[in-house]
């Protein structure tokens, strides 16, 4: 009888996740949800080794991931001290004293063949013209401190926005650990002393713990953080350094006390002389951090500047992080798949760190291996992952490149630097006619690119010529849309009220 007919004699029998934290427990929870029989899932972590998790901001696909895990949204928010996020406010990026909003969702309804922003571009020079942000339902709510769930009725402006969350990453990992263990994941406490490779093909055979235990596996998920215990230390995969485009290489993180009215339904990113500062409001505290370039700012000075610019009293000493922006040359090498910081580092400017874990897990489930580890499957995983990382990289570089700030060496460097050809092509297209071109699958869609191009003053030389040949009163439609958005936002509850009603956490 042909072996191929009875299918699963080469199925994976043992999956080993190395490292806990958000990445490890997200992987364990998702694998336990997907794999029901004949394959054990073991996670090894050490309580002595801290995780990097600070207050995390996310993007809307996290809703899909949590739903795939079968989590109840209200319980998840209660357990993680979570709040809602309608987008990111960028302060002082284009120039000092200027801010803009990157919303979740488009700038209004599509009402014609041409995108609605083309009509806005045509009339933006008129006296008293509204700004681009004024056409975003997410900003109408966020700017008023309001939140409600989007409508399911596509005819309403209340359907034109989306949301994500802010939450405590350490609490999220703890919550997912409970979920995972209830579904049969075995957690081993211990530190890994060495990694043993198979002599025949260099695949990882087992990891050896300090207390003498040996843990063998077919597939290993490396969630060991920046170290890359398996992907780099054992398999020497190599790293592609992107510091020449994204020069920040340090961060200081510190929580502070919440202040009245401070529970904004958005993340704030404020450009500073040597980098930028994040502000992420949770139910019990506010997460803050300063991402900076060590070439232009010392660690002590960064910590001191961060502490001077908090909303409330600091609740800890600033914690330093060091990183090199870039990615592993391969995300899946032999029988090791790297997730989280083990796979690379993208500065958290657009809240993509947990999303990259999530998309890596989804990709693994879509291209799930057996014990033969077909190289074609691995190659496809890496092709998609590399493309995703590079498209996100370009979007983040855009924020630095499109600045007219010349008040400090970092911003002068960024304004003058050459950028990847893939990004320059998009910048040139938008500058010419306000058109948003894409190169294949992109995490950040046209609305996101539009927000940053306009927010950072990459003004098109002209608008789409087609709209001058259309019989459409774009100005009147946009005015009605703005009015409908303002009314809808005014009718929403305050963000704090919504949380108190639906998902209030126990006081920490």
Main beta sheet strand tally, sense and closure: 7 strands, mixed
Structural class: alpha+beta
Shape: globular
Rg calculated over all Cα atoms: 24 Å
Terminus-to-terminus distance: 62 Å
Beta fraction: 15-25%
- Whole-number mean pLDDT: 95
Query: Helix share of residues?
Result: 25-40%
- The tally of beta strands, per DSSP, is 22
Summarize the structure.
With 508 residues, this protein is an alpha+beta fold.
What can you see in these coordinates?
- Helices cover 33% and strands 19% of the residues.
- By secondary structure, the protein is an alpha+beta fold.
- Helix 9 runs antiparallel to helix 10.
- The longest helix has 27 residues.
Task: Please give a handful of descriptors for the protein shown.
alpha+beta, 6-stranded mixed beta sheet, 33% helix
